[in-house]
Amino acid sequence: MPYPQVTYKDTVFNGPSLLKRQKTTISQVTVKAQLKQLRDSGRYDCFKLQWHPVYDDKSMWPVPKSLFWDSDIGKWIEGACYLLFESYDAEVDTAVRELVDMIRSAQQEDGYLNVYFTVVEPDARWSNIRDQHELYNAGHLIEGALAHREYYKNDLLMEPILKYVKLIRSVFGPGQSQRHAYPGHPEIELALLRLYHATGEQDAYDLAQYFIEERGNPNGQDGQLYYDWEEKQRGDSPWMRPDPYPVAHAHWYNQAHAPILQQKTIEGHSVRAVYLLIAVADLVVLDETGGKPYRSRDEYLKAAKTLWDNMVDKKMYVTGGVGAISAWEGFGRDYFLPQGTNEGGCYAETCASIAVMMLAERMLHLELDSRYADIMELCLYNAVMTAMSLDGREFTYVNQLASSDEDKSVRHDWFECACCPPNLMRLFGSLGGYLWDYGYRDRVAHVNVHLYTTAKVEFDAGGEKVTLEQETNWPWDGNVSFRLVAPSSVDTVVRLRLPAWSRGEFTLSPPCHDATAERGYLTLPSSYTSKHGSFEVTIHGFEPRHLSPHPYTNQNSLAMARGPIIYCVEDADHPWEENHFRDVVISDQSQVTEEKRTVDGTDEHFVALRTVGWIRDMGVNLILNLVESNTLQGRIVNKAPEFDAET
Amino acid sequence: MPYPQVTYKDTVFNGPSLLKRQKTTISQVTVKAQLKQLRDSGRYDCFKLQWHPVYDDKSMWPVPKSLFWDSDIGKWIEGACYLLFESYDAEVDTAVRELVDMIRSAQQEDGYLNVYFTVVEPDARWSNIRDQHELYNAGHLIEGALAHREYYKNDLLMEPILKYVKLIRSVFGPGQSQRHAYPGHPEIELALLRLYHATGEQDAYDLAQYFIEERGNPNGQDGQLYYDWEEKQRGDSPWMRPDPYPVAHAHWYNQAHAPILQQKTIEGHSVRAVYLLIAVADLVVLDETGGKPYRSRDEYLKAAKTLWDNMVDKKMYVTGGVGAISAWEGFGRDYFLPQGTNEGGCYAETCASIAVMMLAERMLHLELDSRYADIMELCLYNAVMTAMSLDGREFTYVNQLASSDEDKSVRHDWFECACCPPNLMRLFGSLGGYLWDYGYRDRVAHVNVHLYTTAKVEFDAGGEKVTLEQETNWPWDGNVSFRLVAPSSVDTVVRLRLPAWSRGEFTLSPPCHDATAERGYLTLPSSYTSKHGSFEVTIHGFEPRHLSPHPYTNQNSLAMARGPIIYCVEDADHPWEENHFRDVVISDQSQVTEEKRTVDGTDEHFVALRTVGWIRDMGVNLILNLVESNTLQGRIVNKAPEFDAET
């Protein structure tokens, strides 16, 4: 299975583009800015197992402030290794080596490898699987080790990690003396499946499968749900509960309210929920590509699709943000999608949209359908890229559609719970792997192009190279030029995504009469590609369009989009605005004009939109400038209650 | 201060009317149906202090299922005594006497009088003031004793209650050995102020004042908020919290996040919040009528008005329901008013709207303004009367605007937490006191008429009787005939409410040139009333009207009203409907016709409305019958996205 975290290396971003600019910023600035944050906060040295003042802080329960420091390091190593592959940096290289040394030195005799439960509460290992992130941390260390091995071609990190996995495998499982548990925060499942794919380590596969299958078993441990059982073991009152649990025993917060095969709606903490689904999808994909058989491939596929559909159709913002509810950083009920936290919703965590991209990429392997790739692209441009400032130094955690005085949408240079910034870094580090997937078998090669940008991919086809280049000004216009170089002994099929908003309309030059379009992908057969090494597609649908939310959302709003970009109006561009556009309305009857603009301080162009709005109940005409999200002090605009061209 | 729970005796409902019909049902059916529920559930005998199987149920914390049984008895006694006054019933009379005997026998040597903490947890008295309802129960016993004394003219219940109040007074207060606490569920404050008004018992006044002033003191006990202090005394983990606390230390649930004078928005459990405000208003009213002076009358008045305004302007449904949030049975953020629990809101507890009526009545004494009486009437017809079935045997607790398959709006014959049914009974028992208030001083009498119905009030004016009768078909039309009989030695001023929806328009016959209209009340001077013993007012505004919610609510709905009645469409009247009208829209451009109908099984008339609606996105025309809420399977209808008369 071609994980994007592996195949990214085959892609070069070889021309000016929005993605390349952000990727460059991340590899030149962000990776070091985050390294500085790791050093300043004490995380960098945590594997030295020294005492740190933060360990004295007992104000948080059950998640002390340093509980997931291990994962911050793991994610930074993972991202740094992807970026090193693309452009070497001595400071980053040195830091990775130092960190690996420290991690190696922190491993206990028996393989255990966790800072908090070695330094602070050594007697509490594995005592709170529900809340305390030991397995989550392990998962990110595994992913870090995989990237490290890819780049450094050695096992300095992999070796202790494999030892740790062996230990974990011995602790968890169906055996009588084993814990019948599954992580409160899914992550290790997908990491273990990547590990299995890279190393063939059977323990990794079995453990991931066990975690997925055992999850939500109501009688798993001594006839009880594991989390209830372990709560009693700890002697906790059943009324003790972490802040994100809206009521006692809200096991849906952890997706443990039912086995995954029985879940009909996606619930709880959004990152946990989507990470779990990624692992479910991986299990199905691996089954197709040589993994061990397990209970029921079809059932797991159905579960993944059911929950994907519920998420996308009923619980996703127009930007690809998911997780309306701040209280549990997660999904609300169907169609409950308020625009701002001051209206009761729109948490839309950055990590959650990154996870949606990862899941979409997996789903594309199970079912080539542009509905997955459309969402992947939607998230990328409107919920993930927007989560970082132009200079690469500031980030969002929450991605509201509407700013307010009570909770202004602004970026920060770091967070106490610092999951989002390094997640964004590692996503961009492996972004090449999301653009396309490819394969070769029996003299037939294929490339499925999911995302358009200026880039080149090269892969092996029976000992020879296939190269596909694309060049485009996407996302600002729909024209994409391709150049394919493939050996004549190989039949090469190229599939091009036709986004839903294009309504399947495109122009291909030279034309191809054998081309077929199915489920949002245009297939160019080898008879065509062998004749036309260069071809050009123009995807239609780059006119500005208005988007209305589903009526059940009760959101009386109107969004504007153009191609894959969702626009917003920002306070920064409208100095007259005092209430974050809460009283400004637009109408889909108003004219919209396009305007070429330049990103401040660069020669990068983008397309802004301009329309007329009104202040509600006042009838004052306003010229509104809509831009892709930049300063983040804006909102999706409200819909005019009725349109009156004369007001 | 003329509490409606005292003055109700001066009013006779002397003709056919919607209110009289419901009142009669309550006194003939409901009071006995509830008595049966008390007997069947074990509540009736609870003051015998025997063990009951429910006491073994430890599944609920910190509020065991029987914790407020005392209050159910107190409320039933209170309501029963009001109803006995109006129509004697031997069964009810016998039950009240038996209950009083049992209560007397349950009092402990030192005056303590609480079932749960005598039978089940005798060592835990006063240990959890935040959650465990001892003071709430005491409050309802006080109110029961007040009604009992009024009807029976003896102190059989008042005597033990006064003894209990003395004990409570000794436990709570500013003294060094006293608890600096205040009830988690406000209620006793308003009960104590009624007790003070009725008996002059200074301890009652002082205790109420103390509870109100001390509430939310961040340094009240040993430099801490009392609730934090007592939690530590109990040895509870700070992470133990009851289900309605969305996060640890959510003291706003109990209105203890700040002293009442510093609160700017109404927060938390809605019944608690409004009961507290009633007591605040009482404190201000009593100050005007001979009560003891206290810190600052003006500040308390301002607090009551600030929180009233926040509630009515930003947190109230079109029906007068308050408390959008099911999780804590209380107020959500400003403008957060979803229509159904399946949309994230609309708890709108019956007791909360009853409390709003009680508060409105108090506010009218502080400021004669129809904005209070309008809300009182809105609640009465649309959130309180609707909470009982026509037959008087079934009730709602939650009053959604929109039913759904997940949570159908239906009535039940009883509830485990049975606060609403007896609350409705005692409200109707004392309803006469809400119709009007009156007074006499220095040869000048006045009657302020707040609610129109067919009724008569009689009161003493310097030893002589003043009688005012009104006769009307309200709420179906606006014509009201008055007959005033007053001694010639008394100048009588009559003030008539002009509801906001009438836009102050009325016709008076015979006309009065000296009449003044101010803040929604028309004042008829004694020069007029002395000449015209009979006069007739016709309040305008009985045409059907459409109501749109504030745009910040994001509710794309359109309500229909006529006079004080809010209409809804009900599943029961539309057998074709399968989704509780979620997909049906109406337009304020459509014609609305009126239709006289008869309540099933009676000869009582009402006005139904009829308009045309569409199924959204389908363009199917539908004739919709809108009725005042009856079977409760309907909703306020959605607004048409755009009106097109041709579809």
What's this, in brief?
Chain A is of the alpha+beta class and 647 residues long.
Supply the CATH architecture of the largest domain in chain A: Alpha/alpha barrel
- The helicity of chain A comes to 25-40%
CATH class of the largest domain in chain A: Mainly Alpha
Q: Unreliable runs of chain A, pLDDT <50, ≥5 residues?
A: 642-647
Mean pLDDT of chain A: 93
Interface with most residues: A-B, 35 and 35 residues
Shape of chain A: globular
How many domains make up the 3D coordinates of chain A? 3
Largest sheet of chain A: 6 strands, antiparallel
Distance between the termini of chain A: 59 Å
How many strands appear in the DSSP assignment of chain A? 22
Helix-strand makeup class of chain A: alpha+beta
| CATH fold-level topology of the largest domain in chain A | Glycosyltransferase
InterPro entries (chains A, B): 6-hairpin_glycosidase_sf (IPR008928), Beta-AFase-like (IPR049174), Beta-AFase-like_GH127_C (IPR049049), Beta-AFase-like_GH127_cat (IPR012878), Beta-AFase-like_GH127_middle (IPR049046)
Organism (chains A, B): Emericellopsis cladophorae
Protein name (chains A, B): Non-reducing end beta-L-arabinofuranosidase
GO biological process, one term (chains A, B): carbohydrate metabolic process
